[in-house]
Here is the input.
Amino acid sequence: MAASTLALVRQLRFCAGHRLHGHEGRCAYFHGHNYRVDIEVVADGGGSEVDAVGRVVDFSLIKSRMLGWLDQHWDHAFLIFEDDANALAAVRLVEPTKYFVMPWNPTAENMARYLLEVVAPRVLGDLGVVARRVAVWETDEACAVAALAGPPIDSDIALESAVVVDER
Ligand SMILES: [Zn+2]
Here is the structure.
């Protein structure tokens, strides 16, 4: 019989604004979503490895680490592509402001990839778990999924910080 693989999935929610640079339709306008993220984690060693209690990891740790990061950096922020100079100029003009500069256009696909490759390894790394799949839901009907295609690799993409002017 094949051995089991155990994984946890935690849902995380936040609100953010964005626009899609170069989009041919109305996604080029500033707008926002009530985002939902599903993050799936497995033990570093994979398989059915669990701790003495029988857990891959405690759910509350995934919540506190990942939602903590999302609250600080993406929640109530505008996510802006670094090449979108016009949108960056706009979010820098308003006060107070909170925005996050993305290395890619902030599509659900690229947000999922950023969470999987850049954020999760940094914030979950010491827990002995690996995020292997992240889904980003923009609506109740549509999500984008990023999944590890092989063993986790160290991303060379920098983990950016939100820019907050007049924090509240
Ligand atoms: Zn959108």
In short: The radius of gyration is 17 Å. The first strand starts at residue 8 and ends at 18. The chain has a mean pLDDT of 93.
